[in-house]
Amino acid sequence: MTTNTATGRPQRGVLAPGPPSEGNWVRERVQRLRTGDFGPLPVILGLVVISLVFQIANQRFLSPQNLSNLSLQIASTGVIALGIVFVLIIGEIDLSAGSVSGITSATMVVLSINMGWPPVLAIVLAVVFGAAIGLFHGFVFTKLGVPSFVLTLGGLLAWQGGQLLVLGNHGTINIPYDGAIASLANTTLPAWIGYLIALVYATAAFGKAFLTAGRRRERGLTVRPLSGTLVPASVITVVILAATTVFAQWQGIPLSLIIFVGLVVMVDVLLRGTTFGRKLFAVGGNAEAARRAGIQVGTVKVIAFTIASSLAAFGGVLAASRLFAVNQASGGSDILLNAIAAAVIGGTSLFGGRGTAYSALLGMLVIGAVSNGMDLLNQTSAVKYVITGAVLVVAVVIDSLARRGRAASGR
Question: Please, is 255 exposed, middle or buried when counting C-beta atoms within 10 Å of its C-beta (0-12, 13-18, 19+)?
Fold first, then answer.
């Protein structure tokens, strides 16, 4: 008896297979698509279609200047979406993320501008304040059993009111153009940094792939095709090089984009390469099963809410940096809806148990591209909302179909 490599189930009357061939990797991806595991493919294809449509409608859409502006527009909300991913993975929701970004950024500017605190210390305290808010939400949710929807809806209103109290009669507090806070979203880096990042990433990814294959071969274990690692790594390297080349034709690589992508990579490592990440997915997949397996479900959920609010606070800092000010509307408008929509459009499931850090990046690119393209075509906010809503509904439909496919195939 052998084991079917595609399903993991016993299979009689079949000889034990040798090392997988290069074609097996392709067949595995096709099998995943058939069982509803689409991965990032629908988002990437959608992003390509959106880009082509807007480029045809307006030749400036893919220009270096506009792409640089697009990266600045998505960074702050993208960081908030990155935090939303944690809460969605455990099958919950956080409606207070926008208000948290507003009150923490207001606290930052009051400390830095009005009270003369060092900017770095004010930023750190703002993020710590956000973490404290998330800790409070997580504690009330797990210990008192208040539904996350109601709890964070109350938080949305309460922290919005707190923001007004913090700002007081000032209404708007401007940030100096040449200060440390403003530099976060208004600094560009030379192209060689992007090329260096591509080199470091490619070296690390390729080196790890060959090193892992060598170790498995020495131990007599089956070596999976290197294409499974080298193809995605090559694509990402090419994307980094292409983006760097494009940004170099305008003013350089936006620092806020580097920060956002860096956070995405860190969160990806946390979710996929740590014990906490595995526990997070276990809790989102089946909380009762996770509890019986010895996982402290309550602790995992509290940490998820804490991380979400911390990232919301830092997203508020980036937003304040980009706008050179904090006012009573900071953290409001459609920021929360865009953050949640970005996570879902990017592939994070509303039903819990599935999601990646890159879903926030891809989803934010889709929303940012739609908004930016509509602006270039001089469309109204009403049109932007309609199209963004339609894209969100399509993403949820794809997620629902994927869940049915996985359930039918036993995945």
Answer: buried
